[in-house]
Write a structure and sequence with these properties.
single chain; alpha+beta; eight-stranded mixed β-sheet; 6 helices; globular
């Protein structure tokens, strides 16, 4: 039985593309998928998110969204991938941070049998580092890269300090991502506790 879904997630507007390829259980909820994407891309889970698929919005419970979309709005913690995704080549969108509006295209590439030697979810491939949080969307990201790449730029020192000293746009470490994904349950619990403290 094909219980595993292969997804390719690409951050829209990036050239060359910033992307990840993941294997996830079909019973994964969209809330869990949100956290899997956060870890895999390198985001810090400090903003709101939503998935949109076939006109349906899947997100955290929100009275405003519920009122706006009615029966087209679903709680991400209760909806599983297998209840929405029915075929390969399906595409849907994931938006993270409604200020910077990081839009990701997710493509369903394959359905696969479970490999007993593999721990799911897992990242099997990818390219490049995701942008730093709060850098001003795609245009702000590329402006930031121009600034820190120019040793004579008057704002370079300031931007590097803001970044904590360094930022490597080429960085991608599949093993590091999978180490974090191996602790997904504790990560989700920690994120919920942090959210509860605000």
């Amino acid at each position: 039985m094909d219980n595993i879904i292969q997804l390719k997630i690409t951050l829209q507007g990036t050239k060359p593309p910033i992307w990840r390829r993941l294997l996830v259980d079909k019973m994964t909820t969209f809330e869990q998928l949100h956290h899997i994407i956060q870890i895999s891309m390198g985001w810090t889970n400090t903003h709101l998110y939503e998935f949109e698929i076939n006109g349906i919005i899947i997100s955290e419970p929100d009275e405003d969204l519920d009122a706006e979309f009615g029966d087209k709005f679903f709680d991400a913690s209760t909806v599983t991938l297998d209840s929405i995704i029915t075929d390969t080549k399906e595409k849907f969108e994931y938006t993270y941070d409604f200020g910077d509006c990081w839009e990701h295209l997710i493509v369903v590439e394959k359905f696969l049998p479970r490999d007993t030697q593999t721990k799911y979810p897992t990242c099997i491939d990818g390219k490049l580092n995701c942008p730093p949080e709060d850098c001003g969307s795609i245009s702000g990201f590329y402006s930031l890269l121009d600034i820190i790449g120019n040793k004579r730029h008057p704002k370079r020192k300031e931007m590097l300090e803001w970044l904590g000293g360094d930022y490597d746009a080429e960085y991608f470490d599949k093993n590091e991502i999978n180490q974090q994904l191996a602790s997904l349950d504790s990560y989700i619990k920690e994120m919920k506790e942090l959210r509860g403290n605000y």
